[in-house]
Design brief:
Layout: H1 3-14, H2 23-34, E1 42-47, H3 55-59, E2 62-69, H4 72-81, E3 86-89, E4 102-108, H5 117-127, E5 128-139, H6 147-155, H7 166-174, E6 179-192, H8 195-204, H9 219-229, E7 239-252
Parallel strand pairs: 1-2, 1-4, 2-3, 4-5
Antiparallel strand pairs: 5-7, 6-7
Helix pairs in contact: 6-9
């Protein structure tokens, strides 16, 4: 089974309950939507649209909206919720759109799944019209703390994929031609009552997919991780999970 097919099937399985678990996506979307141009968005492409969680907000300001996702299950949920909108199944690294055919490209927490982020970004830029905009967010190295630290300590592996560092992302963005670039890193924290709830939510949004298969977390390992996490409870009695997120804003200048 190809790597991309595995990702597609993994996220399809997460589609039905996705909106019950997507707190990180909602927080990132709130910030990302505020970075969109003030004027009408024109033809708008929503890459990694999932079950259409941001589709209505984008469609209200667009002359034409297209939601794109690789996972069939996600698109089925989107189609059921918003049957009047346009949905396309495609790989974000192989966009089925002509050059300079889109005014606005929106991609919330999807770039980290690209095999070649720079190549994906170049393709995104190519499909945007001159003076068009791209707003995107992506997960950076240093995310999933302090959980990741304890998973590594007690299981021998962080049990999540590697991400670009902020300097690596900056270097890749600097290689893009014909765009002005704004990028910033923010820490976003999601809180949970238990480690089990934390892991359940990560599975619920598909974030537990790993390129390399790992043995299942044993009961003993989970107990050790949970015990270590207790030192991090906040005054409200909740356990934090910290994400490092890059927010990217590109304006095509030619």
């Amino acid at each position: 089974m190809s790597h991309k097919l595995e990702i597609s099937q993994h996220f399809s399985r997460a589609a039905v309950g996705y909106t019950q678990h997507n707190e990180l996506q909602r927080q990132c979307a709130a910030y990302l939507l505020a970075q969109l141009p003030a004027e009408e968005l024109g033809v708008t492409l929503d890459i990694g649209c999932g079950p259409g969680v941001n589709s209505e907000a984008l469609q209200q300001r667009a002359s034409h909206y297209v939601g794109l996702d690789l996972a069939v299950g996600m698109l089925q949920q989107a189609q059921q919720r918003l049957p009047a909108l346009n949905w396309v199944r495609a790989d974000m690294e192989q966009l089925p759109f002509a050059p300079a055919s889109v005014h606005t490209l929106y991609a919330n927490l999807v770039l980290q799944w690209a095999d070649q982020p720079l190549a994906a970004l170049r393709q995104w830029v190519a499909c945007v019209k001159p003076q068009g905009s791209i707003v995107a967010s992506t997960v950076l190295q240093g995310s999933l703390q302090p959980l990741s630290r304890y998973l590594l300590r007690y299981t021998g592996h962080r049990r999540h994929n590697s991400f670009l560092t902020y300097p690596e992302l900056q270097q890749q963005l600097a290689l893009l031609e014909g765009v002005s670039v704004t990028v910033e890193q923010q820490t976003i924290t999601v809180r949970y009552p238990t480690v089990l709830a934390m892991l359940h939510q990560l599975k619920g949004i598909g974030a537990n997919y790993q390129y390399e298969a790992r043995p299942r977390l044993t009961k003993g390992q989970l107990q050790r991780v949970a015990a270590a996490m207790e030192a991090h409870r906040d005054p409200q009695g909740l356990l934090p999970l910290h994400w490092q997120i890059a927010f990217i804003k590109l304006r095509k200048t030619q």
